Amino acid sequence: MLNAAELLAGQGLSPEAEAFVQAIAGQPDLADRLARMASVFRQRDRRRDSLLLAHAARRLAPGDQRIRVRTEWLLRHEAPLWHFGIIHDRPRNKIYARALQHWVRPGMTVFEIGTGTGLLAMLAVRAGAHHVYTCERRADVAEAAREIVARNGLAERITVIAKDAHAVTLGSDLPARCDLFVAEIVDNTLLGEDVLPLTELARERFLVPDAPLLPQRVSAIGALVAGTDIAESGRMSTAMGFDLTPFNRFSPTELSAGPGGGAARLLSGAVELIGFDLAHDTPALDQPQRLRLVALQAGRAEGVMRWLRLDFGAGIVFENTPPQRSSWFPCIHLLPEARDLAAGDELQLDLQHDRARLYLTPA
C-alpha cells in the first residue's frame, strides 16, 4: 500500500510541508489530514505544496467522497468545468470531425496540443490517421485521456504525452515531424489559451512544411448590442432611491454575454473585427486598427458583442453566432457610457492586441 512518503518523495515539497508529512505519516486518517493541510497551504498561496498534498490525499483514498469534496478545487485546477461543456457541444464536435475527415490522408501522423479527453485525437484516427501524438500539460488529465483511449481500443494508434507543448522534444516524445496539426486552443476571448504562440511553436518544431492546420484561421466577429441585462451586469445607476453612479469607476471593460449571447439585441450588422491566419506568425498589434460599426436600427448601445469564427478551409467553418448556444460564450466590450443611436449612426472603435488578448475602445 502506498504511503505519503512514497507518494511525495522527490516532488519538491517545501521543508515545512515535508516536516508536516513526516509528523503524520503513521496516522490512520492520513489522507484526510493531507487534504486538510492542502487547503491550509492553498489559503497561504503555497500553490505547489497544496497541489502535491491534495494529489497524495486523493491517491491514498481514491474512493473516499469526503476527500473528493475537500479537494474539489484541485479537480477544477486540473480539469476546469469547460471540459464538460465542450464535449457536449455537438456542432463544435461535428465541425472538427468533418474537418478531420476532409484533411486527413491515409498514413498521416497528427500532432495535437491540448489532449483533454482525447476526443479530437480519436476523431483523427477515425478519419484515417496512422498515428496521433497529443500532448497534455495536466498530468491527471493526461492519465484520464490514456484510459479513455485504451477503453476505446486505440492505445496503439494514439500516444498521450504528459508534457507542456514547450517541453515536448522531437526525436524522443515525437519520433518525427507530423503531417497535420489539430488543436482546440481558443477560449471565449479568442486568444486567451495562447492559440497564436502555440500554433507557431507547432509549426516551427513539430510539423512538416505546409502541414494542414485545423483550424487554419481564427477570427473575432462583432456587432453593436443593446440590452438592459448588459447594463445591469456592468453599470450602476440608482437603487432604493439612492444614486450609486460613483461605483461605476469599477465597471468592467469586458464581460461574458452568457450562453448564446443572453438577451442582448444586435443593433448593427456583424463584421469581422480581426482575423488571424495561423499559417503565419502574428506580431502584437501595437498601433490601433480603426473599426466602424453602423447602427441598422435605433437603440441604446451598451457595448460591442464579439464571438468566434474558426475556419478549417474547404468551406468548413464554425461560428457561435448569437443566439446559437455553444460551449464558447460571446463576450461584451462595455462602452464607457451607453450611447443612444439612430439608424445609420456610426460608432468608431480602436482595436489592438498583445497576442494574448484583444483590446477594443471607442475611438
TrEMBL record:
Superkingdom of source: Bacteria
SUPFAM superfamilies documented for this protein: S-adenosyl-L-methionine-dependent methyltransferases
PANTHER family: PROTEIN ARGININE N-METHYLTRANSFERASE, PROTEIN ARGININE N-METHYLTRANSFERASE 7
Protein name: Uncharacterized protein
Organism listed in the record: Rubrivivax gelatinosus
